[in-house]
Amino acid sequence: MSVPPLSRGLLPQLAWAALRAQPGRSLSCLLAILIGVALGYAIHLINHSAVSEFSRATSAISGAADLSLRGKLPDALYAGLARDPAVAVASPMLEVMASLPGQRQPLHLLGVDALKAGQVSPRLIGQPEAVVETGTQPSGLALLEQDAIFLSPAARQWLGVKVGDFMTVQIGLQDVRWRVAGHLPAAGAGQRLGVIDIAAAQWRLHRPGELSRIDIKLKAGAEARALQQRWQARIPAGARFETPELAEQRSADMSRAYRVNLTVLGLVALFTGSFLVFSTQILSLLRRRSQLALLRVLGLRRDELVRLVLLEAILLGGLGSALGIAAGLGLASVALQLMGGDLGGGFFNGVSPSLQVEPVAMLGFFGLGLLATLAGSLFPTLEAAKARPARALKAGDEESVLEKARRFWPGVILFGLAALLLQCGPIGELPIPGYAAIACVLVGALWLMPWLAGQLLGLIPQSWRQSPIAGLALTQLKEAPGYAGVGLAGILSSFSLMVAMAIMVASFRVSVIDWLDHLLPADLYLRTASNGETAFLSAADQALIRATPGLTRVEFSRLQWISLDAQRPAVALVARSFDVTAADRHLPLVDAITPLSSGATPVWVSEAIVDLYGIRPGQTLALPLAGRQVPVTVAGVWRDYVRQQGSVVLTLKDYQRLTGDLNANDAALWPAPSVSATMLEAALRRQLPRGDRLEFAERGTIRQISLTIFDRSFAVTYLLEAVAVLVGLLGIGVSFGGQALARLREFGMLRHIGYRQRDIDQLLALEGALLASLGVVAGLVLGWLISQILIRVINPQSFHWSMQTSIPWTMLLTISAVLVGLSALTAVWAGRRALAVGAIRAVKEDW
């Protein structure tokens, strides 16, 4: 007589009933998915909002231009381009990042020809106050006034000014005042931008006859490529043609590696959450093994059983992902207000983005959370479907489900695959193979742990097993490696990633400290402005500094930006005073100094130049200086932790000889033995005109400020490390709670033969401590291995700098001890809650 199949409409009811029957398990999985989706989606929202605002700002400036010529350009070049038969309109601009007294960030300032800009970039035409009030057309004279500046809403709010107020721009050590004459309402909600007349900009910014950009609108049918080919030989060295799309893409690429790394870190919680789902699901199915077998006997087919368990996962993953999306929206909104669009990374200064929600991305992260839940449920579900109902109905069959955990070959294969991936280079200048290698190493280690735990526990001396409680704990872990592997999944995945991030951040921090000590030899430093390019020390100012009483030595430096490749962001050109024969004392060199031929102009390039441009020591490099290509020889490679787009260092003497630029930005000062840094600062403020505007800082102060900025940049990383530990502890609680439920008959038997509740508590505590100790030791080793991939592969391929490994032993050992203690307490707590259903009754039911 055949048994009629169960109604398919019962599957959702059975799935919902299973979730309600184990609220602790369901809530743990829900929280893990929620946290992972929330962090990943929040970071994506912040990055997307910042890049979108930056793109809108670029589009507002470019307007309808088909092509732009950028660089240090003479007025005469504009006149020739404007007469080209392919050019409909050419709009000249002088674009600078203006230094503002009292502000840490510069103002993006544009000098425009109102008549030409109106035909190419009409959104750059300022609206005087009368236009805002009456809606009339702006007067041409208002746009051409020599002291008038038009500010975007974000700039007005940032500076706290209104129409009619005056604001100050620092030029050299002098102040130039501008009257806020009107608004730039279409410049972009979050862009800090100021627009002035181009003639006034050249005159008042001390840049006569200079342009930095020419926007070109082509005639119908004209080709941009043909125009570039005609003019390429006539433009100055370092100038470049580019489309608005290329400019936008290049600006976004500067922060791409940082944004991708942040997103990956945000998804770490989701990755570890999938292991938590795996452990909770497999323990739940072990507990319900006989129930599922009974359903099979009653007519539930294997495919229906698979759908039932996956439906449970879908319900959990769907709810967790939906709540995670909502939480991510809230987190992103708060983070944008508190930390800006770069989360402390410094890539989007001058842009204050508003939250930009993309439905496609929202659905993508929802699907990602759902996929993580299904991935964690897949193996347990397939194993449950393979079980034979007659065998599964009997007690004691649970460990056979985890028999595959004893196999170590899959783990070895995954480690081999990781080694192959590490031999691959970056894809699209992103370390995609490196991330894949970390995933293979982590999954491979998890696969090896049951086998490794059995081997290690087998080495424990027989004498240690004489104690009734210790003997039971050791026997349980040794004879049930599948359970041990499940228990270790949550600990190992979260703790190893936390260890890896802790080692990487500590290594980076220690390397930055050594780097700062190398670059800051002087007692006192002078800077004309925190940021911007309009503040500088003239030759006369430098002479006054040298003549200051109490000063024994001074070294000036100059910073400029040059273009080595039109497809890439500009690189920094740093001119410093130092002895080329002892460059290793002045620069943190990566390798030894390369011998040079006599007469060669030596330069030292950062690691980013080597990676991005393929330049090696001893090779010749053409630098665009003063409108011409100047051949220089690379004398060495130095480590630069500030400019990931690359930097080139040469002596100040060579820079002044090649360019004729005698200005400087900064000065390193050595006071006389009897003069303190404070006394020298006061003397310099009296010596120089507008000395009150200068910024002074002692070496220790700069070091502390730099480390504060570093810690703020890695604040998100610290948060994600804490989340990883919390997810790991959550996994321990779920694992031991599930194991206690699956071992009800065992505990009932122990109570029958005389074990007390406190004996079982001690047993659980010892098992939890032993299992956590194994996980902690393995996590330290695995975390170190992953940290080496981060330090030697991920960071060099992402940011183009290297670092030395430094392990924060005190922090790691403290966290390890706390984690072992908390694991023991969590095991007891979870076991007590599970045993509240009655272990003795479970034995009676089995009889």
TrEMBL record:
The keyword Nucleus does not apply. InterPro entries: ABC3_permease_C, Membrane_comp_ABC_pdt. It is found in: Cell membrane. Keywords: Cell membrane, Membrane, Transmembrane, Transmembrane helix. It is a multi-pass membrane protein. The keyword Acetylation does not apply. It comes from the Bacteria. Residues 264-387, 722-835 form the ABC3 transporter permease C-terminal domain. This is ABC transporter permease.
